[in-house]
Design brief:
Number of strands: 7
Number of domains: 1
Structural class: alpha/beta
Largest sheet: 5 strands, mixed
CATH superfamily: Uracil-DNA glycosylase-like domain
Bound molecules: uracil, iron/sulfur cluster
Number of helices: 8
Length: 230
Amino acid sequence: MTVPRATGTRPAGDTAAADGYDARPYLPERGGLAAHRRAAADCRGCPLYEGTTGTVFGAGDASARLMLVGEQPGDQEDRRGEPFVGPAGSLLRRALDDAGLDIDAAYVTNAVKHFKFVRPSGGGKRRIHKQPTLRELSACRPWLAAELRLVDPELVVALGATAGRALWGSGFRVGERRGLLVPLPTLDDGALHGQGLATIHPSAVLRAEDREALYQGLVSDLRTAARALG
Ligand code: URA
Ligand code: SF4
């Protein structure tokens, strides 16, 4: 799943339209995933690019049958330029494996393409993950929409609440819908063919006191995904 990190050509100070957060001015008018990945490296559609190493675009096969959508890159993903290469990624890989799914055959991406973080109060170098706002989520959504349209997967697994909201809107509740096969949203430029399924985020397993129970729940949802793919 190694992809070369695209290097930007737009000047670093360039910002999005003054009227709001929006990635759309940065999307290429045509081209495939590679063209979109290159263009996303220059995205200034919201302030989240500030202080990061770069954009973490989706990675994997453009003809993948399965697409996985996480929340946003974490510290390690930001440094390496690839989604799910840190601790959450290791757990995800293991859970997919236990469910009979191969992450290397999937297209893996995030709802938001830059790492949002805060520094610990009192100073320090550590970067602590911070949840993206709805405004940042909708600013970044055109990239996700383009990936959905270009990959056109049979099944999209939303990992956690942010991915669920990016796909099905701000009222989406993972707790109510997890493990169920549901239709994908209709994009501005047309309907998608595949189905969707939401489950918990692998980081929620890492944070939980009862890790094993949450892990088994994640695997059980992913087994439903595996059955849907046949
Ligand atoms: N968490 C996510 O949601 N995505 C990543 O890429 C890494 C951690
Ligand atoms: Fe663009 Fe998304 Fe990054 Fe914001 S988070 S700058 S919209 S790629």
